[in-house]
Amino acid sequence: MIVIRVELWSAITGEKIEIARMNISNTGGTENIGNYACETLRGRSTADLNRRIVQRKGRVLSHPRLSQHVWHLVAKALTGMGYGGRS
Asked: Nearest CA to 61 among 11, 24, 86, 21?
């Protein structure tokens, strides 16, 4: 599983706060092409996110896992779940 955590690092206090989390799980495919289940969790703190309440779910199918960087997978997952405007 790939876990993407978004943290806010305060330049004033040095405090680090987790404000978002997404999980991407491999659901099959081949060595070169992967299928994934994706979910974002509800909350804006580590305590809230640790409750694992799913905010949105999605899937990424036929992702070329060896020829594209993982950021492409993250972008496809976010777009597929309706983040960033039109999907």
From this structure: 24
